[in-house]
Amino acid sequence: MMRIKLPNSYFEESDNSIRLIWRNTLYADFEKSLLEKAIKRKFKIKPEISVEDGYLTVNTENEEIEKFVAFLIQSHLGEFLKSKYTRRKVLYIHEGMGVPLLGYNGFGLIDRGTNLIQVRGSTGCNLSCIFCSVDEGPYSRTRLLDYVVDVDYLLKWFDEVARFKGKGLEAHLDGQGEPLLYPFIVELVQGLRENPNVSVIS
C-alpha cells in the first residue's frame, strides 16, 4: 500500500471523490474514478484509491505511480481549486500568467502616492456582513470568483515598488475580504519583514 501526501495539504474522501485540502483554506475535488482510470491507462493495473489519516492511498508499491498521481493532481489543481470559506472557484495568480499586480483593486498592490502600500494577497471572506462595501463572503450576490496570488510573485512585485519608493514604507495587509485568510500569510509577513525599505507592517 502506497501513501501519498503533498506539501501543506491533506486528503479527505467522500462517496465518489477525493478532496485535497491545501493550506487549510483551499480545496479541490477529484473524481476517484478518473484518478483510477488514469492510473490504469498509464500503468496497466487496476488500482484502488482511498484516504487514510490524511494520506491518499493506492494499492501498489510502484514509486512511479506515486510521482504520476502527484503530478496529475498538481497539474490539474487550478481547474478544480475552490475557497473553503466561500465555496467559489479560485483563480490562482502566479508569475507564469503575466498578470500585473498593480492597477486592480481586488488583489495585488495598491500605491496611492503615500508611504503606505496596500498588499492584497487574496479575496474572499468567511463572513457575510450586511454592511460589506464589496459584497464579500459566502452569501455574496455578486462575486463569482475568488483570487489568490502566489506569495513569491506578490513579494517580487512588492520589492520592485519598494525599491522605487525608498525607505520608510508601511506594508498594509488588507483586501476585499478577510486578509488573514490568505493561504501564505506567514510567508508574506516574513518576506515583508526582510525588505529593507519596510518600517511597518500593519
TrEMBL record:
What is the superkingdom listed in this entry's lineage?
Archaea
InterPro entries the record matches: Aldolase_TIM, Radical_SAM_PqqE_MftC-like, rSAM, rSAM_sf
What GO terms are given for molecular function? catalytic activity; iron-sulfur cluster binding; metal ion binding
Q: Which residues form the Radical SAM core domain?
A: 122-195
| Keywords tagged on the record | Iron, Iron-sulfur, Metal-binding, S-adenosyl-L-methionine
Note the Pfam families from the entry: Radical_SAM
PANTHER family for the chain: MOLYBDENUM COFACTOR BIOSYNTHESIS PROTEIN A-RELATED, RADICAL SAM DOMAIN PROTEIN
Q: What is this protein called?
A: Radical SAM protein
Give the species.
Thermococcus litoralis
